[in-house]
Amino acid sequence: MSVSIHLERRLNARLAMRIAVPVAAVAAGLVAGGVILALGGHDPIDAYNSMWEGSLGSSDGIQATLIKACPLVLTGLAVATALRVGLWNIGGEGQFIIGATAATGVGLYATSLPGPLVLPGMILAGCLAGATWATIAAIPRALIGLNEIIVTLFLNYIAILLMDHLIFGPWADPKAFGFAYSRALPDAAMLPVIPGSYVHIGIVIAVLVAVTCWWLMERTPWGFSVRVAGGNARTAEYLGLHISRRMVIVLALSGAIAGLAGAIELTGVTNRLQDGISVNYGYSGVLIAFLARGRLLGVVVSALLFATLVVGSYALQTTGVAQPIATIIQALIIVFLLAGDAALAFRVHITRAPRALEPVAAGVRS
Amino acid sequence: MLTSRATEGAAPEPGATSEPAATVLEVRGITKSFGDRFANDHVDLTLKAGEIRALLGENGAGKTTLISVLCGQYRPDAGTVAVRGWPLPPGSPRAALAAGIGVVHQDFRLVPRFTVTENVVLGTDSWGGRKVEQKVAEHAAAAGFQLDPGTPAWSLSVGELQQLAILKLLYRGLDILILDEPTAVLSPPQAAELFNSMRKLADGGRSIIFITHRLREVIAVADEVTILRHGKVVADREVAGLDALQMSVLMIGSDAAARHIASRAGNPGEVVLKLESATVEGRGVRALDRVGLEVRRGEIVGVAGISGNGQNALADVAAGIVRPMAGSRTCIASAVAYIPEARMERGLVGAMSVSENLSLRQYRRPAMSHPLWIWSHRMTSLARRLIDAFSIPVKNPDSRVADLSGGGLQRVLLARELDEQPDLIIAAQPTRGLDVASSAMVRSHLVGHRDRGAGVVVISEDLDEILELSDRVLVLFKGAVVGEYSRGSFDRAEIGLRMGGEGTD
């Protein structure tokens, strides 16, 4: 008796499958993580309990998750938006940092701005800086086809070094005892919080941006033309659409969203420019967009999931689990989710076929 | 698996040809169908040692399918392939190779960064060395190739790349060589050089199947010819004594009178499109050479020719997508419909839905959208209307267009392009790969729009289709118009000759 396994592409998975598979993936990730926790001498049940308490199982946990989700929604959107025109923006990290840097510059030096304009000015500066940073990659891509992945990636390092130069040098806080901090921003530069919580309004802005991007790309004629250009450049050419113009505009928009994320994190959380203001938010955005299969509204969901895992793994660390192990658990769940998503695209046939030369046994059918 | 092992055991020693004129390859009754279409229908073919056999036929006649069966890529529905009396297990590329059958594909399949020797030994156990280089050089010399074993492949000319691809087979000791349209990419002197080498190899005892649709080449190099038409062998004979005209009649079919021209004559009006001396060059090749074309309202102009003779460039220029580098294009049509040859690659967006693809020409119209909003229900109702009118085989307008079959894709494209009542229609290979029903629908739509008053250009390799539809026929060869005929004076044989580059001086 030989068994053959055969994969067949599945066109459309049923809704039940699309829900069951990610749930099963998270469960599988937790089981695998549990083995690692047990090997490390921790009780997996206790550990997961504290993870739950710290993320979704308590009011404080939910608030922490929402704060963490804000930059992730935006950097995920930055990637998913660029994907609409067929480009990979791997430079969310740099655009985030340059956005935070520009916002800091406005906060520190535009002292003549009237109070109510400080915050909008900072946020606008963050968006413009992010857009500019992305445009540096977009123009050579549109004109001569220079790979945007490489250019956006390398611009990340330039942005980080530029920020470091400023916070160690001209913008350094003399009272920070050598820490890589800029001077603190004025109070007018603080983002308000949602009443009754300590969650800043960034998450509301992020969701509004998500809906706006979705509407722009999926519901307007211009967004439609962008998707044509991203879906098949030769067809776009045949229809007479200007592809390079759309590439530049969309990548600039994508950069602006990542820059906005930086400005919001600055004004909502850190209140000063500091090394590590981005905990790989830009790179996580790539993963989040991937988990959302590039869908703009899906990004909100996958960013919330991602934020839950991150906050949960912080909580895990407070119970004495070492940070690397907490990160491994977080990574395991994501790997299972990605694998589950890939598996959804296939139907698995396992055929138990009688060998060709043997008479077919009764009741055995392929 | 058992049969395969038996055959591998029986694989001949390389180069060990038996007495002259022994049959090395015997193909009997090969039948292969795709869907309801027979690509090969009981094909027989015999190849003797030292023989060069031309395999002649139009595109879609079944040449490539037959070759794929011979080299084990396809498993035939019926029929056998035997090498020196031993039947090959069907569908086993390894067994075909072990029996000595090697194919030089049109795209060569070489590694540009590797040297000649590295490319030759790639896939064998060896990785070069002086001895191997020497052996490579010997094989090259025997075939009359001037290839330096140490040269990287990227620096070779097209002709040399082809020599390298042949050398690969020689080095492996294969002695049934199949060359798939080897002259398609060669200049005439390069082709002549190739023919010399082929003759040398055949004189050395190897047998060659040479695929082409150029009649002159058959006469120049082949001993025997097998002509395929619609998947069937219509001739299998010596080349000596055949002339180009006879061959073209066999290849294309002589039943012109029997095939009654189905469509009525058009009623030509004003000129909608005029190309004057339009020339397009790409990569040093003249894709289009001083082409003049006039299309009037209410007529169908057919462009006959074997693919690769400038059809794509002509379609792009006629549709106004590519501007001619020299010459001019005048077009008074307010709406131009273009059905490109590469439907999926150029006409559609695979990741988008059927309804979105159907709206590609109209989504910016006020009826469909406002700058800030697309009325998606109007998009859907347009889609439903077109799905009905063109019988697009899809239930849900929101399903991905990439999941449709070839016929379905063409219906989507046709529906979208013709819905705007265009004044000018450019249709390139509009029925290629389609089943009978879809082809008939495409043709009737083209005739219908002509009768409505549109000017239509049909570019096709299918001469039957051209003759059936056209009010005038142009023949394209190497980017130039080499013949022009009006309805009533269609001479099928002569058109066939001109398509093969004959009948002109």
What would you call the structural class of chain A?
A: mainly alpha
What is the overall pLDDT average of chain A? 89
Instruction: Kindly state the number of beta strands of chain B.
Output: 21
* Overall body shape of chain A: globular
Reading the helices and strands of chain A in chain order gives: EHHHHHHHHHHHHHE
**Count of helical stretches of chain B:** 17
> How large, in whole angstroms, is the Cα Rg of chain B?
25 Å
Instruction: Work out the largest interface and the residue count of each chain.
Output: A-B, 17 and 27 residues
Number of helices of chain A: 13
- Our estimate of the beta-strand percent of chain A is under 5%
Summarize the structure.
Chain A is mainly α and about 375 residues long.
Report what the structure shows.
The complex is a heterodimer of chains A (366) and B (505). Helices cover 69% and strands 4% of the residues of chain A. Chain A is built from 13 helices and two strands; from the N terminus they run βαααααααααααααβ. Chain A has a two-stranded antiparallel ribbon with strand order 1-2. The relative contact order of chain A is 0.21. The C terminus of chain A is likely disordered. Helices cover 33% and strands 26% of the residues of chain B. Chain B has 17 helices and 21 strands. In chain B, the strands form five sheets. Chain B has a six-stranded mixed sheet, with helices on both faces. A six-stranded mixed sheet of chain B has the order 15-18-19-13-20-21, with helices on both faces. A four-stranded antiparallel sheet of chain B has the order 2-1-4-5, with helices on one face. In chain B, strand 16 and strand 17 form a beta hairpin. In chain B, helix 5 crosses helix 6. Chain B is globular and about 75 Å long. The N terminus of chain B is likely disordered. Chains A and B meet through helix 8 and helix 9 of A and helix 11 and strand 17 of B.
